[in-house]
Each structure stands twice: as C-alpha cells, then as structure tokens.
Automatic annotation (TrEMBL):
It holds the Pfam family PMSR. Has an important function as a repair enzyme for proteins that have been inactivated by oxidation. Catalyzes the reversible oxidation-reduction of methionine sulfoxide in proteins to methionine. It comes from Sinomonas atrocyanea. InterPro entries: Met_Sox_Rdtase_MsrA_dom, Met_Sox_Rdtase_MsrA_sf. GO terms for molecular function: L-methionine:thioredoxin-disulfide S-oxidoreductase activity; peptide-methionine (S)-S-oxide reductase activity. The active site is at residue 10. It catalyses: L-methionyl-[protein] + [thioredoxin]-disulfide + H2O = L-methionyl-(S)-S-oxide-[protein] + [thioredoxin]-dithiol; [thioredoxin]-disulfide + L-methionine + H2O = L-methionine (S)-S-oxide + [thioredoxin]-dithiol. The gene is msrA. Its EC number is 1.8.4.11. This is Peptide methionine sulfoxide reductase MsrA.
C-alpha cells in the first residue's frame, strides 16, 4: 500500500472521487504544509496557519498504478491557478503535493511534466516535503458520501465526478 498526500482545493472534492476509485483503501481529509500546531478548519480557513486542505490517499499499486492516481489528481482540479479553485480562494486551497521520500518527489515532478501538456498555462502545483498530517474534523471525512444532496456537492463535486467517470471509468466504482 502507498499513500500520497495531495491538495487540490477543497478536500471534499478529491475525497469524493478517490473514495470511488478501485484500489483505494482509504482517503483521509486533513491539513498539512503549515506552521501552526493542531490546526482546525476555522484556523486553516483564516489563511494564517500556512496549512493546505489535503487528502491522504492510500491505495494498492497492484490494483491502480500510482501514475493513474496522480493523473486523476491533475484532471480533478486546476493546477495552474495559485491559491484558488473556483469559488474557494486562499492559500489553504493551493494545488500541492507533499512527498515522504526523494523517490516520491521525483514521481510528483514527473507527473507535473506529464500533465503540463493538458494545460495552456504553467502548472503551479507546490511540491514540498510532508510535515505533520493533521486529520480534519469528523464532519469533513467522507463528506460527499454523507451529504450527496448538499448544494456544494451538486454544483461543485458532481461535475468533478462526471469528469472522472468520463476519463477514468475503468478505475471508478459506480
């Protein structure tokens, strides 16, 4: 099993897609990349902690290739816009990848290079060494599964799920 820590805007979006991905055994929404100990949602949203909203995606490489997990990441958010994803604005929504090893850092950098051709402007995804990962509050875990009819899910997450189904249908569980 392998775990990637990825930030692509609101963690609810990445969580929703990766929860439905074959070979993914766990998705934990959380915070990392900042300087403030034991952050919570409100402190992270203040923009003062330096943390990003992220997901820790644990998957089986024998079921889904790590490159596919990363390519999905770049398809599910706009990695060319710093500190913003749609209506979500602030450093906590930055496109980010947090590596645990030098090998993982190289893998992330290759994924950026591979996916750059899909975008008209440069990818600005931050690649940083992982620090402490703080799981988000229970309310944020499995948000889409618990609240599929919520407005945010209908307007923001459902289109991302549709895009994932279009390009990665062989990897998604309906």
């Amino acid at each position: 099993m392998k775990t990637f820590i990825l930030g692509g805007g609101c963690f609810w979006c990445l969580d929703a897609v990766y929860q439905k991905t074959r070979g993914v055994s766990s998705v934990v929404s959380g915070y990392t990349g900042g300087h403030f100990p034991d952050p919570d949602y409100y402190s992270v949203c203040s923009g003062m902690t330096g943390h990003a909203e992220v997901v820790a995606v644990t998957f089986d490489e024998e079921v889904i290739p790590q490159e596919t997990v990363l390519d999905m990441f770049f398809a599910l958010h706009d990695p060319t816009t710093p500190n913003r994803q749609g209506y979500d604005v602030g450093t906590q929504y930055r496109s980010s990848m947090f590596y645990l090893t030098d090998e993982e850092k190289e893998l992330f950098e290759r994924a950026i290079e591979r996916n750059q051709s899909l975008w008209n402007t440069p990818i600005v995804t931050e690649v940083s060494r992982a620090g402490t990962f703080y799981p988000a509050e229970d309310f944020h875990q499995d948000y889409y599964a618990k609240n599929p009819d919520a407005g945010y899910c209908s307007v923001i997450i459902n289109p991302k799920l549709a895009k994932a189904r279009k390009y990665y249908s062989q990897w998604l569980i309906s």
